[in-house]
Design the sequence.
């Protein structure tokens, strides 16, 4: 029986990062992955969606090129969505190969098989029937998109994100309905709207991107409407039925009903943990009410030698959470200092047009938590770089406490703001105040200056508004 | 009054200053900060001598 | 005679920011500007160049659109450089009006006139002959492009950046020669190369972007060569002469000479302070050997009531330096804490394709300063977002000290990295160590993750390489 210091189950950003880091730190490590190295993230999540978003950005740029002194007869622009998908798949493939290379380089043993726990230190490979042993086991089996029951998912036009990443026949004349206005639903809506499709986004909660600050939802509603996307927030889907080649979606809000016809339907309603047939019982591990695995601050399940990380743990379903948890598990196993992860201080990004990025508490949450709040805002309309780039939709909103100007939350809407939020995450993580941010000399011209201005607004007043 | 930077019970020090102070076994409460809003900088820690702060 | 708390001479990013901030803080303030509010930066510098860079980016995107499943017959793309310039001028105009609005709103008295010092507390307006009095005066008269002597600047095809921002007749068939490979020369070279011009960049020092880390110059040389830009670094221009409609530029390196023909020539060889006819003598202020005004840590000239900021002071000729100095002057006047500006920790940006951004010391400078250096590097080729965006040229290089992993310098090359450098400037300013950066949870996928990876490389090893 092969003996390891660490067996990692699942090769997503939780599992593969854990395995590499463990191996770099001298642990003899095995990784078991039944499908694709890189997991959901690299193959059916973060990466292929961003490749599609880039395609969409290119297309938008072309359609707007008149503003920049370039004229192209629109009839001469030939758009091939299947080719866009092809590039997206190729990027995933390349990264998948890259992960394989990294695991090899770091001497992680890879088993392409399905794993099942035998007990707290043994794992059985389902196909080969081999049993592996380890001092510690990390479960990083991830999640899959939730399928709202009652829809016919055999119909190729009714899909979750997985199907949407394989769908190649989008036409500019298509009507598309998206159920669920979280990050994933909004990202696909943004991509398809860029390709000219008539998109409707339906959200049960009263506003799109319901986890974001209210100001963000408002700005994004405005921006998406301006792009021609229909927003139906606070609506309940009552019935989905097939009408010939069309999908009919029935909605209701305050007793009033509405009917929307679509050629395609995306169901984007959260994720469910991959816990089936994992042998959890044999290690005495229970699934919680929400279907996820509970972990303590050391990332241990109720079985001390079995850790769980990533989407499986039902925290924020984000790749960087999975990876960060994985690094800390390795610290725990090595007896090094383990960082306690504060899940409210994780940066959250939505790669739409415009983009959304945030970290920390919303204004409402901060007030709910009992803080006396001071808000500093700055609109990109007053930012020189945004004007030069012709991307003036959006703002920076800093939620700080009144007394120390401690940063509680930073909320961004705008072009490429997902690249600005890391700085904010650093400031929050290391407990800097708005006064600190305000006096950091930011480069001119840059969108990042808007963060400095919003910090000035917390301290006293912004300069450029 | 006690010298030092512990206004309102908060000691504000840069990450690097904290690292250095820990290594030196120095209590940051004793150090006067000269950085932003009285934050303790690495130089404050480097230059700290009990005598120099007595005043 | 009108009495002020503060008179500001010059309405660039040094002067107008000082005036607004002074007024916000209760000082009765006058601003004297003889030409355009916003100064070089808004009218003939930072902003119009970035608007042009955006135009160029749009054009590049269109030419590369085949990669994204979009096909356009190149003959159908009509490019109008004059229109691109028009947009650039309009953006400047809009910001110029914006500054005027801000000054009005904050109740700053604006004098559209030329100022001359009478003494340390009086200023004479040249046209109106009015004399204004103030407790303190800030000189922010900026700079102008240096004209290498001996060239015929009457010839419309021989220009400094000022002329380049007015030139409207660029053709894709043009040969363009740029003398000076600092940020400004490189930015124009990048723009014109995007428009299809055959560009040659000549630099006297051994490498382009000579103030940057050597690794940056190397990567940019490679990237520009790949784009078809000819690089001649370590070359001396010996003669520029007119040959019919062409400009002939003679170069020399190690005794070997070369001849380059151009349709246009940009001279981009630094700036000279605007000190002429300022009445400096009457206030007892001397110009230093380099032609700039010396200031102390409180930004005072040798006359205690007269401050100087911005390009006039011969520090880094950057807009955000001018503005930052201005804020501190106001603090000084108000008797508030004055931040000592560490000029090596100012973020420096070059808005080329790819972009360059850096802060702090280069590896060479750090070693020269006696540090034991530990370098952490991460190539964008290994960054998921960069792959998804198809922008894999570039890297992150962190220069840290070996013992505490104190961040001494961060050097970035890549798409839009000028938006990432503020974070790095914050990290340096607030004294983060590489260990601190490494454990900040960065969003996935993002280019910013490459900074985290380079920090990991300083601490021990990067994960994804
Ligand atoms: C469309 C979409 C877009 C997204 N975009 C982003 C984004 O931009 N940013 C972001 O941070 N997050 C994004 N996410 C979320 C992100 O993909 C997940 O948070 C992340 O993949 C979770 O990582 P993980 O390692 O926990 O699980 P996963 O990535 O799901 O990996 C789990 C792996 O375990 C394997 N596995 C499962 N059971 C077994 C078993 N018994 N034996 C062996 N192998 C097994 C699976 O095959 C899978 O490869 C997106 C998700 C989707 C669906
Ligand atoms: C092509 C180019 C691109 C640049 N790009 C960038 C960039 O991307 N980022 C960056 O940070 N910097 C950039 N710079 C540099 C930036 O423009 C300067 O650092 C900045 O403008 C300096 O600000 P200032 O206030 O000191 O002077 P200026 O902006 O030069 O303003 C001085 C003002 O004073 C006025 N003035 C002068 N004398 C008198 C007088 N006697 N009476 C009344 N008014 C007077 C002038 O008319 C002028 O408006 C660029 C410069 C150029 C030329």
Sequence:
């Amino acid at each position: 029986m092969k003996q390891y210091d660490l067996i990692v189950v699942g090769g997503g950003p939780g599992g593969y990062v854990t395995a590499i880091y463990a191996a770099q730190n001298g642990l003899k490590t095995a990784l078991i992955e039944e499908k694709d190295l890189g997991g959901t993230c690299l193959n059916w999540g973060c990466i292929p969606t961003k490749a599609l978003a880039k395609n969409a950005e290119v297309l938008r740029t072309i359609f707007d090129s008149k503003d920049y002194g370039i004229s192209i007869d629109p009839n001469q622009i030939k758009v091939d969505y299947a080719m866009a998908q092809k590039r997206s798949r190729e990027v995933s493939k390349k990264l998948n190969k890259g992960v394989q290379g990294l695991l090899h380089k770091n001497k992680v043993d890879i088993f392409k098989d399905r794993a099942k726990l035998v007990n707290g230190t043994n794992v059985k490979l389902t196909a080969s029937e081999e049993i592996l042993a380890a001092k510690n086991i990390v479960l990083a089996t991830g999640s899959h998109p939730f399928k709202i029951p009652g829809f016919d998912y055999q119909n190729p036009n009714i899909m979750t994100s997985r199907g949407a990443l394989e769908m190649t026949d989008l036409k500019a004349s298509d009507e598309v309905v998206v159920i669920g206005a979280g990050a994933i639903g909004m990202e696909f809506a943004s991509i398809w709207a860029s390709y000219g499709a008539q998109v409707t986004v339906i959200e049960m909660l009263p506003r799109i991107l319901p986890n974001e600050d209210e100001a963000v939802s408002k700005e994004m509603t405005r921006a998406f409407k301006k792009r021609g996307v229909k927003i139906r927030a606070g609506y309940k889907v009552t019935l989905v039925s097939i009408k010939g080649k069309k999908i009919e979606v029935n909605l209701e809000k305050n007793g009033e009903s509405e009917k929307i016809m679509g050629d395609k339907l995306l169901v984007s309603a959260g994720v469910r943990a991959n816990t089936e047939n994992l042998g959890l019982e044999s290690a005495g591990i229970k699934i919680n009410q929400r279907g996820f695995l509970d972990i303590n601050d050391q990332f241990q399940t109720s079985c001390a030698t079995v850790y769980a990380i990533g989407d499986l743990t039902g925290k924020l379903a984000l790749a960087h959470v999975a990876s960060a948890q994985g690094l800390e598990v390795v610290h725990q196993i090595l007896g090094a200092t383990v960082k306690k992860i504060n899940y409210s201080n994780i940066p959250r990004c939505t790669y739409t047009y415009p983009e959304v990025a945030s970290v920390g508490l919303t204004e409402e949450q901060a007030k709910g938590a009992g803080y006396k709040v001071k808000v500093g805002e700055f609109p990109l309309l007053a930012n020189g770089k945004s004007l030069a780039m012709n991307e003036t939709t959006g703002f920076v909103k800093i939620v700080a406490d009144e007394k120390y100007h401690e940063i509680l939350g930073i909320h961004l809407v705008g072009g490429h703001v997902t690249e600005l939020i890391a700085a904010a995450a650093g400031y929050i993580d290391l407990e800097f105040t708005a006064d600190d941010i305000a006096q950091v000399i930011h480069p001119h011209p840059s969108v990042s200056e808007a963060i400095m201005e919003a910090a000035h607004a917390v301290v006293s007043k912004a300069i450029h508004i | 009054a006690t010298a030092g930077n512990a206004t309102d019970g908060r000691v504000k020090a840069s990450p690097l200053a904290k690292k250095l102070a820990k290594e030196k076994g120095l209590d940051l409460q004793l150090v006067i900060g000269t950085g932003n809003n009285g934050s303790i900088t690495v130089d404050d820690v480097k230059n700290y001598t009990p005598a120099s702060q007595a005043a």
Notes: The mean pLDDT of chain C is 96. Residues 81-105 of chain C form the longest helix (25 residues). The radius of gyration of chain C is 23 Å. The interface with chain B takes residues 339, 404, 406, 430-433, 435-436 of chain C (CB under 8 Å).
